[in-house]
């Protein structure tokens, strides 16, 4: 591991001198400058269980592995994980890194309210060969509960009172989900330690149960996490979690807060998990590190002075070494890490510990998410308005043409491209652009936006991110509202082709997703973030429409 950020080394020295590692393991809340009895103190005291996750999950390992073996032997061919944020992202990483072992079921992660995704899953559903993993720490996540009711109705229509055998829950004790699972006769109910926050739960039952269901090496994953945890007890520079956390925290303090993650191809999926962990943990009180996880490495002259890089190589591949050397030679700090593919559990714990350390450097509580609930409350209000009026309230547009309607309180123009042009012209050094997509899944929108992002980086030398709604609300959404006011957000929506009822909700998935998009726009605007909503009139032509309108704006 090599570091080229002198402030990072100094920060690590200070942390060692102040015994921050030992105090973290002793659960000393003063590490994060929390006053005794404060709200921060209470949230920290109840969210440090990830430190002991190897001990607390050990008694459940045999049961977890047995569930995976049973799914294989019983001919289960598809597992659908219904979850959001920390309850789903680690499973995506496991599937990508380890694949699906022979004879084990395929894993589909449904972390969405998107009509196309949900109806496509329903269309290919084979009830007798399917298993649903309902995963929610709080037990009341709106996306998860909505999908559970939808698929429960589908499964009971075919299987009757045997449907419960095809459902498994992971949740905290005494949640509504636990009670629901028991009343419905779920096959298994796994109760996770309640003092582990969602984004710190990769090595808990939230990560290990889906790993077992695809035949991943659960014992090795847990052992890797345990070994890294022991290494993270060292009060010296050999503690890689300490060094990584010091690097992140010091980079933010030096205004290099765009933490650009360069991953080896085999670990590409790790980026979304890191993004949620770092953004939601540090993006508050006007500070924090913004992970940039899916941006191809560019030329050094394309980057502003707000970048810091972390590169992770494996025993089989690595990020572009030539580009990294050029970036480093140009003066950008680069931290290089290595990880064996079979050591994924260790990598999870390294980043979790580093996040706690970065919080200590920045003097913030990395275990809460104070702004996430704001968008949820606005979504609830919009759904109440829909119930009362039969429609969602829409503001007056800033501009419109045959293919797109543009909404913005801060920018104007005679045509949609003019509004975008005005927004992009507002970018300054240290800003970033967030592309937040509520467009139908399984489209080529992300590819189209990737080209727009590279054009913006070349023109304005600013970072950009791409988030899929509502997933990002449980990830970078916290940073967009709670971090520094440097965001320019483009929220992208379209009308869905279908309207699928959510049982017992009085609305459809389409309405719920639109309410989530509008609620987030309102929340961003309430925090004085520069926000533009692009409503594409033909969802199937979204990629082409967006390519055209941004090309016009860049002329």
Keywords:
single chain; 555 residues; alpha/beta; 6-stranded mixed beta sheet; 5-stranded mixed beta sheet; 21 helices
Note down, in words, how this protein is organized.
With 555 residues, this protein is of the alpha/beta class. 45% of the residues lie in helices and 15% in strands. It contains 21 helices and 16 strands. A six-stranded mixed beta sheet has the order 11-12-16-15-13-14, with helices on both faces. Helix 16 (372-389) crosses helix 20. It is globular.
**How is the largest sheet built, in terms of strand order?**
11-12-16-15-13-14
Number of helices: 21
Give the terminus-to-terminus CA distance: 44 Å
Biggest sheet overview? 6 strands, mixed
Query: What structural class do helix, strand and pairing data support?
Result: alpha/beta
Total strands: 16
Using the alpha-carbon principal axes, give the shape: globular
* C-alpha Rg (nearest Å): 23 Å
The residue fraction in helices comes out at 40-55%
Report strand %: 5-15%
Average pLDDT rating: 96
Poorly predicted ranges: none
């Amino acid at each position: 591991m090599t570091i080229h950020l002198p402030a990072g080394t100094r920060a690590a020295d200070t942390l060692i001198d102040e015994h921050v590692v030992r105090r973290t393991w002793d659960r000393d809340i003063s590490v994060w400058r929390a006053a005794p009895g404060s709200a921060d103190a209470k949230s920290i005291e109840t969210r440090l269980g990830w430190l002991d996750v190897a001990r607390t999950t050990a008694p459940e390992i045999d049961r977890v592995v047995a569930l995976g073996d049973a799914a294989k032997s019983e001919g289960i061919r598809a597992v659908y994980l219904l979850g959001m944020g920390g309850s789903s992202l680690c499973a995506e990483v496991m599937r990508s890194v380890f694949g699906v072992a022979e004879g084990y079921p395929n894993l589909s992660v449904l972390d969405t309210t998107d009509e196309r995704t949900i109806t496509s899953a329903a269309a290919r559903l084979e009830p007798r060969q399917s298993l649903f993993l309902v995963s929610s720490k709080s037990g009341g996540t709106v996306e998860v509960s909505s999908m559970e009711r939808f698929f429960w109705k589908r499964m009971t229509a075919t299987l009757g009172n045997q449907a419960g055998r095809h459902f498994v829950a992971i949740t905290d004790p005494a949640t509504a989900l636990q009670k629901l699972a028991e009343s419905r006769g779920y096959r298994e109910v796994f109760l996770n330690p309640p003092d582990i926050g969602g984004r710190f739960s990769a090595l808990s039952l939230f990560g290990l149960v889906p790993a077992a269901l695809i035949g991943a090496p659960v014992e090795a994953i847990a052992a890797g996490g345990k070994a890294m945890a022991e290494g993270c007890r060292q009060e010296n520079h050999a503690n890689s979690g300490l060094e990584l956390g010091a690097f992140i925290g010091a980079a933010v303090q030096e205004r290099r807060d765009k933490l650009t993650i360069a991953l080896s191809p085999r670990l590409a999926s790790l980026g979304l998990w890191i993004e949620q962990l770092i953004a939601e943990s540090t993006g508050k009180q006007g500070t924090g590190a913004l992970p940039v996880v899916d941006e191809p490495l560019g030329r050094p002259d394309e980057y502003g002075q707000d970048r810091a890089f972390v590169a992770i190589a494996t025993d089989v591949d690595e990020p572009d070494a030539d580009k990294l050397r050029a970036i480093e030679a140009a003066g950008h700090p680069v931290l290089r890490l290595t990880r064996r593919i079979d050591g994924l559990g260790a990598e999870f714990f390294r980043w979790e510990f580093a996040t706690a350390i970065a919080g200590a450097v920045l003097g913030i509580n990395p275990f809460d998410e104070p702004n996430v609930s704001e968008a949820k409350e606005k979504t609830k209000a919009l759904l109440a308005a829909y119930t009362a009026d039969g429609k969602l309230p829409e503001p007056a547009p800033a501009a419109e043409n045959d293919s797109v309607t543009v909404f913005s309180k801060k920018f104007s123009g005679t045509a949609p491209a003019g509004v975008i042009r005005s927004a992009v012209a507002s970018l300054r050094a240290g800003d970033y652009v967030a592309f937040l997509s509520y467009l139908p899944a399984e489209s080529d929108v992300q590819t189209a936006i990737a080209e727009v992002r590279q054009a913006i980086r070349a023109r304005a030398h600013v970072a950009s991110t791409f988030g899929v709604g509502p997933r990002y609300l449980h990830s970078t959404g916290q940073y967009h509202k709670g971090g520094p006011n440097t965001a320019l957000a483009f929220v992208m929506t379209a009308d869905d082709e279908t309207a699928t009822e959510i049982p017992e909700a009085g609305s459809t998935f389409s309405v719920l997703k639109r309410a989530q998009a509008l609620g987030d726009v309102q929340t961003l605007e309430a925090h004085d973030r520069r926000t533009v909503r692009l409503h594409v009139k033909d969802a199937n032509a979204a990629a082409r429409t967006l390519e055209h309108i941004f090309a016009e704006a860049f002329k």
